[in-house]
Amino acid sequence: MTRLRNYFLTGFIVCAPLAITAYIAWSFIGWVDSWVKPYIPARYSPDTYLPFPVPGFGLIVALVLITLIGFMTANIVGRAIVNFGERLLGRMPLVRGIYGSLKQIFQTVLSNKGDMFRQVGLVEYPRKGVWSLVFVASEKETEINQKLDQEGDPLVAVFMPCTPNPTTGFLMYVLKSDIVLLDMTIEDGAKLIVSAGLVAPEVKAKMVTLNGERIEGPLANPSVGAGPQPARSNRTASSRPNK
C-alpha cells in the first residue's frame, strides 16, 4: 500500500505542473482568440471553411500585427505617426498619466538596458530578528536620495513581494548597508516566494584556489592563503551587530 501511495504521489508531482501549465497556456490562447477573432473578416478566417474552430489563429494574427507595428515604428514615417498619437494622448489629463506610466513600465521590463531587478537580498522587517526577501531595484540618484542624505550610505529602492503572488508587494527605500545581498538569482527568489519557502534554491559550491589546488565546496574560504582581502561593504545576517 505504501508503494502504491508513493507511485501515486510521484505521478501527481509529474502530471500536476504539466496540467496546470497546459491549462494556463490554453486559457491564454482562448482569451487572445476571443479578442482578435471577431475583428478578422470571415473570408480570411479558417473557421469559415472548417467545421471546427482553429485555436490559436487569433494569437498568430496578433503576433503578426504586433511585429508589423514594431517594423513600422522603426522607420521615420511610423515613428512620426506614433509621436502624433502620443501628443494626442498627452492632451488628455487622465489618459496621459496612465499611458505614460504603462509605457515606462513596459520599456523597463522589456528593454535590455539592465534596469530590471539586479539582485535578491534580505532586509530586517517588520521587526528586529525577522528577515524579509526583497528584490533590489535601483541605486539611481533621485530626489528621495537628495532629501534623505545619509552621508555616504545611499538609499536603495527595493521591492518586497507578497506570498504567493509576487506581482504585489511594497516599494521601500532602505539604506544600502541594511541590505544583505544573496547569491540566488531573481528566478530562484521568485520561486521561493511563490512556493512560500517550500522550494529553496540549492547552495552552489564555489571553486577557490588554495596552495595551487582547485577546491570545491560551499564552505570554501577564498581568503585562505590568498593574502589580505579588502573588507566587505555588505553585511551578512550573522555579522549584524546586536542592538
Write the topology of this structure.
Elements: H1 2-36, H2 57-73, H3 76-90, H4 93-110, E1 119-124, E2 131-138, H5 143-147, E3 155-161, E4 169-175, E5 180-181, H6 186-194, E6 206-210, E7 213-217
Antiparallel strand pairs: 1-2, 1-5, 2-3, 3-4, 6-7
Q: Which features does this protein show?
A:
two-stranded antiparallel sheet; five-stranded antiparallel beta sheet; flat; 243 residues; alpha+beta; 2 domains
Provide a descriptive summary of the structure in words:
The N and C termini lie far apart (about 55 Å). The protein contains six helices and seven strands; from the N terminus they run ααααββαβββαββ. A hairpin with a 6-residue loop joins β1 and β2. The strands form two sheets. It has a five-stranded antiparallel beta sheet with strand order 4-3-2-1-5, with helices on one face. It has a two-stranded antiparallel ribbon with strand order 6-7. The longest helix is centred in the first third of the chain and has 35 residues. With about 240 residues, it is α+β, with helices and mostly antiparallel strands. α1 packs across α2 and α2 crosses α3. The chain has two domains: about 110 residues, no CATH class; about 80 residues, no CATH class. The chain is about 40% helix and about 15% strand. The radius of gyration is 26 Å and the shape is flat.
In percent terms, what proportion of residues is strand? Answer: 15-25%
Instruction: Sketch the major β-sheet.
Output: 5 strands, antiparallel
List SSEs in N-to-C order: HHHHEEHEEEHEE
Q: How are the strands of the largest sheet arranged?
A: 4-3-2-1-5
What would the principal axes of the Cα set say about the shape? flat
- The average pLDDT value, as a whole number, equals 79
**By helix and strand content, what is the structural category?**
alpha+beta
Helix content: 40-55%
End-to-end separation: 55 Å
Roughly how many Å is the radius of gyration? Answer: 26 Å
Number of strands: 7
